[in-house]
Amino acid sequence: MTRQKGQALVEFALVFPILFFILALTVDLFRVDWAATTVAEAARQGARQAVANADPSDNPFGAAGGSCSGTTQVNAANGSGCLTSARVYQTVVGVLGGFSAGANMLEASPSNCPNPAVGHASICIYPNEQGSAGIYVNCAAARSSLGRDPAPGDLGARAPEYANPQYKGCFPIVVTVIYRYDTLAPFLGSAAPNFLRIASSTSMVAEY
Fold this sequence. Notes:
The protein is of the alpha+beta class. The protein has one domain. About 40% of the residues lie in helices and about 15% in strands. The protein contains five helices and four strands, in the order ααββααβαβ. Helix 1 (about 1-50) runs antiparallel to helix 2. The chain is elongated. It starts with a helix and ends with a strand.
């Protein structure tokens, strides 16, 4: 009887790591899907806030005041400074919630948005908030010169375009969120690093 108990303990000790790995992997699969949905929603809300045409009296590119929301409709998007990169970043971080232990904000295109550390996020907003205005007279001139619809960054910075809108209907803004999932399953991060990199970009046309 003692020998059988000892054998059972040895067998359990051998099988337990495998069972634990399978359990952790199963939980990871569900959490990765949840994280992917959250990252996509964060990018969508960030882009929605960045393109909303807030009331000029609220100074959308000025100092922060009041609350901002990536789901607020245009006629209700009236928080001060809500179109700035810093406030768009706040909205994205709020949507990410507990998934991110920290986030870095950059004004960069999706292709230049860097991979964050494990458990962290990179939030990239493009084009830049401040900078020069576009060089084209209007949307038609931009399309004619470019030979295509303008891409984010083709038509100058966001604040100059808001102050003197000349590209109504064709000024795109893109928000990219990259999150490095922190796995529960041992060694999964080193075995499948690309599986744990969750990225989403949302591009919208500015309403100002």
